[in-house]
Design goal:
alpha/beta, Rossmann fold, 2 domains, five-stranded parallel sheet, four-stranded parallel sheet, 13 helices, 9 strands, 42% helix, binds phosphoric acid mono(formamide)ester, binds norvaline
Length: 313
């Protein structure tokens, strides 16, 4: 197992598939209220949660996950740990003396790399950066695997900003054999770097394809995914983006252009009436709360793999 999870690309194909399998087993145990074999995997160990941006799902599910693996959570205030009170490299060198892992939500991906490089005995987990949201993609592909019964050969359409969530979906989809179609307005496409990275790890002929027209992107897709038009840190651009992204709203009309049995996904939080309408997010085909639940199971599996079963020290 790699020590860090800064990106989906840190996992091999086998590790990614194993993570989804372990998460399924943990989900079953929890639903049956069975004491899982992993219940003491983090016994006596601590995990630091450092968040520079708001969070409901990621923070809550990591707290529950660490607790259910027998570990303890440490949450230093973000302005103290990440706010420039001291050099980030010194923060990392302190943390590695106390905790086994640091789960970090920040702005640039480079800040995660810095922590990982400065503190070799600390496992660093990306809880969202401006570039990637790999923990979200784990939950989303567990959700789709449960829903479809398989992954390879299927097509997921992402409609909206080619952002952090879209990047991790493209990485994971390609590795799992799922075609990922991304429809975005001009200037907001998935970065070409991500398309190239996805192509390099693609399995079963899966492709990432970029579209301008959302109706073309969703044609034949068995899942339609969207995210906010302005991500955290882009609030000043919200009005300008709203005008550009309006034609990319996921509404009943757009869902009707997708495969007949298409599901709807969203990482949440959603801005109802903007990127998605109530009729879609509240429809029977919407999987958004299963995605949120699966954040817990997949992050438990990830922590177990990084710090428990597969840990090298
Ligand atoms: N989907 C997600 O990461 O939600 P939070 O921002 O609430 O953690
Ligand atoms: N793209 C969004 C995802 C939130 C979970 C953001 O970065 O704000």
């Amino acid at each position: 197992m790699p020590k860090h999870f800064l990106s989906i690309l840190n996992l091999s194909h086998g590790e990614l598939e194993h993570c989804l399998d372990v998460a399924s087993a943990m989900k079953r145990d929890r639903h049956m209220r069975r004491r899982a074999p992993s219940a003491a995997a983090l016994d006596g160990r601590h995990v630091a949660l450092l968040f520079e941006k708001p969070s409901l799902r990621t923070r809550s599910t990591f707290e529950v996950a660490v607790h259910e693996l027998g570990g303890h959570v440490l949450s230093p205030p973000s302005d103290v740990a990440l706010g420039g009170r001291e050099d980030l490299r010194d923060v990392a060198r302190n943390l590695e003396r106390w905790v086994a892992a640091a789960v970090i939500r920040t702005f640039s991906q480079q800040r995660l790399v810095t922590v990982a490089e400065c503190a070799p005995s600390l496992s660093v987990i990306n809880a969202l950066s401006d570039e990637e949201h790999p923990c979200q993609a784990l939950a989303d592909f567990l959700t789709l695997k449960e829903h479809w019964g398989r992954l390879d050969g299927e097509t997921l359409a992402f409609v909206g900003d080619g952002n952090n969530v879209a990047a991790s979906l493209a990485h994971a989809g390609s590795m799992l054999g799922v075609n990922v179609h991304v429809a975005s307005p001009e200037g907001y496409e998935l970065p070409s770097r991500v398309v190239e990275e996805a192509a390099a790890v693609s399995r079963h002929g899966a492709r990432v394809r970029l579209f301008r027209d959302p109706r073309e992107a969703v044609r034949d897709a068995r899942a339609v995914y969207t995210d906010v038009w302005a991500s955290m840190g882009q609030e000043a651009e919200a009005d300008e983006r709203a005008d550009l992204f309006r034609p990319y709203q996921v509404n009943a009309d757009l869902m009707a252009a997708a495969a007949r049995d298409a599901a709807f996904l969203h990482c949440l939080p959603a801005h109802r009436g903007d990127e998605v309408t109530d009729e879609v997010i509240d429809a029977s085909y919407s999987l958004v709360f299963t995605e949120a639940e699966n954040r817990l199971h997949t992050q438990k599996a990830l922590l177990f793999m990084l710090l428990g079963e597969g840990a090298t020290c």
